[in-house]
Write a structure and sequence with these properties.
The protein is α+β, with helices and mostly antiparallel strands. The chain is built from 3 helices and 10 strands, in the order H-E-E-E-E-H-E-E-E-E-E-E-H. The N and C termini lie far apart (35 Å).
Amino acid sequence: MAEKLQNRDFIRVGKSHIQGQGVFAKRLIPKGTRIIEYAGQRVPKLDLMKDFATGLSSLIYVLNLNDELAIDGERNGNDARFINHCCEPNCEVYIFDEIPYIYAMEDIPRWAELTFDYKLQSLQNKKLTKKEKLALFPCNCGAKKCRGTLIT
């Protein structure tokens, strides 16, 4: 059953106007559709900075799973890792039994880019100023209500 969900042929990866590669709808994706699992290696959050320092991860494709674990889509990941951030997204992440899935928040027309709000937070839980957030994690989404940063 899980394999069938992964092979519904909804998406393709291509060049994005937001950032690098992006994920695009190959056909209309109805609101509420489970599109794809966010796959990758489960990594203890305490190990992320060590993995970055040793070159095991760039930290670019990391998705927060829970208080202790993250999923690094760079390691054993799938096309979901290329879904870009947007402050006004058309997708959202739901986690069931510690498996994250990307769902359509609205009808997504053919060829539209899929996006979700990354809702990044500081790894050290350090309170950053708005200026620091803008400088460290600028947003390129182009949404009308863009907050200017990937950090919430």
